[in-house]
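Appendix C: a fully annotated inverse folding record. The material below is reproduced so that readers can follow the format used throughout the book. The structure is listed first as tokens, followed by the designed sequence.
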């Protein structure tokens, strides 16, 4: 290689360096359990499948173009508007419609794990989930990642600091109260319970309520129980999640809990049965506004 060629190559490398650095600054690499994806900062055309993630980006002030409308929780009802494209269901995306949108990024969670690769072929797809064993760490990580992608890191940190303070306050109060709690899902007449490490384990770990039963099986749909079980465990507090109110059913949780055996419980006698916001706890946990609703739900114990 002659001297002129070497000089030319050196000049080109020096000239390219700022562009390379600029390209890196304008991209975010997200590593998740399904792989790694490179996303442009401040993407303009955003499709979101998970309600917790939709909650976060909405709180960050990000405009989205496509959402799942079928089971939108009430506090995200603005996305039912025709201005937003319906991109399928939580488990079955409308791939043709998504492709037509030409999104810059797609945000998904566990319910879309099986279709991740197909979505990632359409656009960079970010997979973010909530770890039931460590709600706060996974939730705060998701908020920070999205804050980085959309250029709202300062806002994200401020929101997290405020939420953490609220959760710690409740945990301190729960520690002083020492009342043992049971998380009960009522599903059109059927009962199931959840304990530490479950999808609702945040009640025990982060919010600090000791479990009334430490031996509850950790399964996605909860451990099936009877009213006799409730009498045997006899919790001080019961947190009720009405699944039928979210997915549809003929009998409400309050109707089911109007039962002679329930009236025998300490929780009933002390007026300590609390009905949680089922849409948030069951379908949309993991968002900023949603976590604030969870905080308010549990604050009612101390009012």
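Designed amino acids, in order:
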């Amino acid at each position: 290689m002659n001297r002129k060629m070497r000089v030319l190559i050196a000049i080109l490398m020096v000239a390219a360096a700022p562009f390379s650095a600029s390209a890196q600054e304008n991209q975010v690499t997200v590593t998740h359990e399904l792989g790694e994806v490179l996303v442009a900062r401040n993407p303009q055309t955003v499709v979101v499948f998970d309600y917790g993630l939709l909650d976060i980006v909405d709180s960050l002030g990000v405009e989205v173009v496509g959402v799942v409308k079928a089971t939108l929780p009430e506090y995200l009802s603005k996305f039912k508007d025709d201005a937003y494209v319906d991109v399928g269901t939580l488990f079955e995306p409308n791939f043709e419609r998504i492709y037509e949108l030409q999104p810059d990024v797609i945000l998904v969670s566990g319910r879309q794990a099986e279709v991740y690769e197909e979505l990632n072929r359409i656009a960079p797809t970010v997979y973010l989930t909530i770890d039931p064993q460590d709600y706060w760490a996974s939730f705060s990580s998701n908020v920070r990642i999205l804050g980085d992608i959309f250029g709202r890191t300062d806002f994200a940190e401020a929101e997290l600091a405020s939420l953490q303070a609220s959760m710690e306050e409740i945990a301190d109060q729960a520690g002083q109260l020492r009342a043992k709690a049971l998380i009960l899902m009522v599903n059109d007449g059927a009962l199931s319970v959840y304990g530490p490490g479950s999808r609702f384990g945040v009640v025990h770990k982060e919010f600090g309520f000791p479990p009334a039963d430490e031996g509850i099986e950790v399964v996605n749909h909860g451990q099936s129980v009877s009213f006799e079980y409730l009498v045997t465990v006899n919790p001080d507090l019961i947190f009720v999640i009405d699944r039928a109110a979210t997915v549809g059913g003929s009998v409400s949780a309050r109707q089911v809990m109007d039962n002679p055996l329930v009236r025998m419980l300490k929780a009933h006698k002390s007026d300590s049965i609390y009905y949680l916001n089922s849409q948030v706890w069951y379908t949309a946990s993991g968002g900023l506004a949603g976590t604030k609703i969870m905080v308010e739900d549990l604050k009612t114990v101390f009012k």
